[in-house]
Design brief:
The strands form 10 sheets. Strands 30, 32, 34, 35, 38 and 39 form a 6-stranded mixed sheet that branches. Strands 14, 15, 18, 19 and 20 form a 5-stranded antiparallel sheet that branches. The chain has a 5-stranded mixed sheet with strand order 22-29-28-25-26, with no helix packed on it. It is mainly beta. The longest helix is centred in the C-terminal third of the chain and has 10 residues.
C-alpha cells in the first residue's frame, strides 16, 4: 500500500524456520534499480525460546529437549521450572519431550541458589548459556524472633543415623519485621535417610540457637542402601598358602548407622568366577586361613546388608602363591637360591643362616646377602645426666643380636651423635662378658659437647657405633636416651 505522501507499507507472513535470521526491505523502480530503505531486524517467532539440555545423561529425562520462553530455568520434582515476569512457571514432561505449561506459581522462592545439576541453554541466536537445574522437591520455611532480626543467619541440616549433613549455610532472611525474620529455601528430600529430620541453627553473630534434640522436622524419604568399604586385604596384595589373611571392612547405612555382626558377610572366589563365592565369615574383621586355597588370583568380597534388605559390596583382588612346607617362604623363593636343594619342602629355611651373617633367614631382610651393618641394643647409664657433674665415667652396655660382640674392636666404639648433632667421643675402657660389651666414656667431653649445642634440660638421644676386625668386616649402630639436668 502506498500513498502520494511517499509513505508505503507491506505486510506478509514469515516462515518459522527463518527465526534467528535478519530481515530488511528493498524497493525497485521501473528501470530495475534496487535500494534498501530499512534497517535490519532479527526475525523472532512467537513460541520460539531457549532449548535446555541436561549435561548429565544419567539424570532423568537427560535426553529430553525442552523449549521455554523465559529465564532462570530450574529442575524440580520431575518438572522444569523457570522464571518469567516475576512468576515461576512449570513444564511437566510426559516422557516424549512434549510439555504442558502451567502459569502462575505455588513456589515463592528464588530457584537460582538451590542445589542442582549443570545444564546449558541453547539460545535462539545459536549461543550457549550456562544454567542451573534444580533437583530438589520441597520448600522449608523458618520463622525466628530476635531484637535485630536482620542480623540473623540460618543453617539447615539433615540429621540421619546420628550424623548431620548441611542443606544450606548462612542463609539471610527473606523477610524481616520489627523483631521477626522469615527464611525460605528448597531442599531435596531424596537426599535424606528414611526417618531423617531437618534441624536448624540460628545465630545473630553472638549467640547460636539450635533445634532441641529430637525436635527436628521429619523428612519423608525412601530407605537408602548401605555403603560397604574394605581396608584389608589391600588391593593387589600377595599371600602364601601358609598365611592367615586378615579381612577388615565396614558397612555404613544412612538410615541405621554402622552395620555390625551378620550384617557384614565375607566371601572369597576365584577371580574368574561370578560373585560372590564361598562365605568365610561375618563381622568387621575375619582372619582367613589360606591353607585351603590353590595358588591363583582371588577376589575377596564384603557384602553389607541393612535391615531393609538393601545391599552393597566392596571387593579386593589378591594373589595367592604356593608355600609347600608352610615355613613362611614361597616355593619360588626357596628354589634355585642360596637356601640349597630341597629347601622348598624341608621346612628348615627360617632357622637357617644361608649367608652366615649371624641373622636367621626368617629375620634377615636379605637372607642371601651377608649384612654389614647391625642394629645394636644399647643401654646408656646414667638415665639422668647432671650437666654439672664430673668424675664417674658414663657406662654403655651393648648387645649385637646375631653377631659375636667379641669381634668388635674396642677402640672403634665411640659416641657418634648426641642430641641430633654429630660428634666423635672415644671410649676410655672396653670389656666383653658373654654377649654384652661394656664401654666406658669420660663424662666431661659429653657434657661439654651437649652444652655447646644448647642442651640444658630434657631427653636427648645418644648414638654409639663400633666395627669388627673380621673379614668381611661388620659394624653396629645403637642408641638410647638420657635425661639431662642443669
Amino acid at each position: 500500500n502506498a500513498d502520494n505522501t511517499g509513505f508505503a507499507e507491506a505486510s506478509f507472513s514469515i516462515p518459522e524456520d527463518l527465526e534467528g535470521m535478519w530481515l530488511t526491505a528493498t524497493t525497485s523502480n521501473v528501470n530495475g534499480l534496487t535500494s534498501e530503505f530499512s534497517e535490519c531486524f532479527e526475525v523472532q517467532g512467537a513460541g520460539f525460546g531457549d532449548e535446555i539440555r541436561l549435561l548429565d545423561p544419567t539424570t532423568p529425562l537427560g535426553t529430553t529437549e525442552f523449549v521455554v520462553d523465559g529465564f532462570d530455568p530450574a529442575w524440580r520434582s520431575g518438572s522444569l521450572l523457570y522464571g518469567i515476569d516475576g512468576e515461576i512457571h512449570r513444564i511437566q514432561p510426559d516422557g516424549t519431550g512434549d510439555e504442558t505449561i502451567t502459569s502462575g506459581s505455588d513456589f515463592d522462592y528464588d530457584p537460582s541458589g538451590a542445589p542442582g545439576v549443570t545444564a546449558f541453554v541453547r539460545t535462539s541466536d545459536g549461543g550457549d548459556d550456562d544454567v542451573w537445574l534444580l533437583v530438589d522437591g520441597e520448600t522449608v520455611t523458618v520463622t525466628a524472633t530476635d531484637q535485630t532480626p536482620e542480623n540473623l543467619r540460618l543453617d539447615l541440616y539433615y540429621v540421619c543415623g546420628g550424623q548431620s549433613m548441611p542443606i544450606a549455610v548462612a542463609l539471610t532472611p527473606d523477610v524481616t519485621g520489627a523483631t521477626t525474620a522469615s527464611f525460605q529455601t528448597n531442599y531435596d528430600p531424596s537426599l535424606s535417610c528414611a526417618g531423617g529430620t531437618i534441624e536448624a541453627a540460628l545465630t545473630d553473630g553472638f549467640l547460636r540457637t539450635t533445634t532441641p534434640p529430637g525436635s527436628g522436622e521429619p523428612v519423608a524419604s525412601d530407605p537408602k542402601p548401605p555403603v560397604a568399604a574394605t581396608y584389608g586385604p589391600p588391593l593387589g596384595s600377595t599371600y602364601l598358602t601358609s598365611d592367615v589373611i586378615p579381612f577388615h571392612g565396614i558397612g555404613e547405612d544412612a538410615d541405621d548407622g554402622t552395620l555390625i555382626g551378620a550384617s557384614l558377610r565375607w566371601f572369597i572366589r576365584l577371580a574368574s568366577a561370578p560373585c560372590c563365592g564361598t562365605l568365610v565369615g561375618t563381622g568387621g574383621s575375619v582372619d582367613f586361613e589360606a591353607g585351603g586355597l590353590a595358588p591363583g588370583d582371588y577376589i575377596v568380597t564384603l557384602l553389607a546388608t541393612d535391615p531393609d534388605g538393601q545391599t552393597d559390596t566392596a571387593e579386593s583382588l589378591i594373589h595367592v602363591i604356593p608355600d609347600s612346607d608352610h615355613d613362611g617362604f614361597s616355593d619360588a623363593a626357596e628354589t634355585n637360591t642360596c637356601f640349597g636343594a630341597g629347601a622348598a619342602t624341608d621346612g628348615s629355611t627360617p632357622s637357617g643362616d644361608a649367608d652366615s651373617d649371624g641373622l636367621p633367614n626368617a629375620s634377615d631382610p636379605e637372607p642371601c646377602v651377608a649384612a654389614t651393618v647391625y642394629n645394636a641394643i644399647v643401654d646408656f647409664n646414667p638415665n639422668d645426666l647432671n650437666l654439672t657433674s664430673s668424675g664417674t665415667p658414663i657406662t654403655v652396655f651393648i648387645q649385637t643380636p646375631g653377631r659375636d660382640i667379641r669381634q668388635i674392636v674396642g677402640s672403634s666404639v665411640r659416641i657418634v651423635e648426641a642430641s641430633g648433632a654429630t660428634t666423635n667421643i672415644a671410649n676410655v675402657g672396653w670389656s666383653v662378658s658373654g654377649s654384652v660389651g661394656t664401654a666406658k666414656f669420660a663424662r666431661q667431653p659429653l657434657i661439654t659437647f651437649l652444652r655447646s649445642n644448647g642442651v640444658t634440660t630434657g631427653t636427648v638421644w645418644i648414638v654409639v657405633s663400633g666395627s669388627s676386625n673380621t673379614n668381611p668386616a661388620w659394624s653396629f649402630t645403637g642408641r638410647d636416651t638420657t635425661n639431662t639436668k642443669p
